Amino acid sequence: MSGFIGIHLNGEAVQVQQGLCLEELVRERGHASNEVAVEVNRELIPRPARAEYSLQDEDRVEFVTLVGGG
Amino acid sequence: MEQWTDEPLRVAGIELQSRLLVGTGKYASLEQTEQALKLSGTQMVTVAIRRLDAGATEERCLMDVVREGGYHVLPNTAGCFDAESAVRTARLARDLLETDLIKLEVLGDPRTLLPDPVGTLAATEQLVGEGFKVMVYTSDDPRLAVHLADLGAASVMPAGSPIGSGRGVLNPTNVQLIMELVDVPVIVDAGVGTASDVAVAMELGAAGVLLNTGIAGARDPLLMARAMRAGCEAGRQAYLAGRIERRLYANASSPEEGLIEEAGPSSPTGEDLGKAPVGAS
């Protein structure tokens, strides 16, 4: 089925709409923009650049946040 | 002198009145985390960076606790076993938390969690070059500490003993040598098991102590948070006050003059001690 691409989000295979930008993916997953930092293919995509980044097939996306730690 | 005030710990351009840096991991609940941090008196807390589960946002999260408490946030690269992962984690942390501060950890293996010196040096150089204020977790090797400081680390943080081991400062000589050899603040990080361990580190002259498990893993974390605070202050004051020298022989604290007449040579046998004083019935 065209119109969808396959990406890896935090290690899991996920289907998303073609042309979806990172900022939209963040929102679609139920996250506030400032509670997540994003990496694609091992490179940080800074918060202001998320809207300009259109997801590509096979992109490896990491969503991270802060947790308790020493 | 009713109140005694210390000069602040100046690290990475920040002034901290408390010399205790406290981690936010392993508490029983968010409420306990919040209370423990408050009772410890800390002003800088560490956090880790991990994958975010989809839609898992709780009503109140660690971010709220940290922000409402007014703490300086020191994100770590815990769990990174190579320089590249640590650098990537630091970049994510900066984007997430809008801070240049990073507690750099590049670990050698999961069993000891000892810092890997080669990866730590490489990541320090890279991150300093990218404008991070690197507070670097390291072994207690003095020459390695010098290299890290020369690369531009904001603080060198030698392990007292392995992370979470509770064994205290195993090599006080090395920690003291590090403080002699580097000009940046030396913060003893890891291995602190109880309040006296913090006091020992501070008495050596450490600029501060960073700990987590020592509080979070105690039977009563909130009481231990108070104890760690007191230990830190006691150790700091003792350091500034200047301890007495260690001696082999005793050194009487009461005057040696003006003693009453000594008993005869038979005294050590205790023969006279059984006699009732005159007038006793």
Task: Please describe the topology of this protein.
The complex is a heterodimer of chains A (70) and B (281).
Chain A: E1 4-9, E2 12-17, H1 22-28, E3 37-40, E4 43-44, E5 60-68
Parallel strand pairs in A: 1-5
Antiparallel strand pairs in A: 1-2, 3-4, 3-5
Chain B: E1 9-11, E2 14-16, E3 20-23, H1 30-40, E4 44-51, H2 62-68, E5 72-75, H3 83-97, E6 101-104, H4 117-129, E7 133-138, H5 142-150, E8 155-158, H6 172-181, E9 187-189, H7 195-204, E10 208-211, H8 213-216, H9 221-241
Parallel strand pairs in B: 3-4, 3-10, 4-5, 6-7, 7-8, 9-10
Antiparallel strand pairs in B: 1-2
Q: CATH-wise, what's the superfamily of chain B?
A: Aldolase class I
Q: N-to-C terminal Cα separation of chain B, in Å?
A: 52 Å
Can you give the helix content of chain B as a percent range? 25-40%
Q: Please give the order of strands in the largest beta sheet of chain B.
A: 5-4-3-10-9
Oligomer status: heterodimer
Helical coverage of chain A, percent range: 10-25%
Radius of gyration of chain B over alpha carbons? 24 Å
DSSP strand tally of chain A? 5
Per DSSP E runs of 2 or more residues, the count of β-strands of chain B stands at 10
Report the sheet with the most strands of chain B, covering strand number, pairing sense and barrel closure.
5 strands, parallel
Q: Can you count the helices of chain A?
A: 1
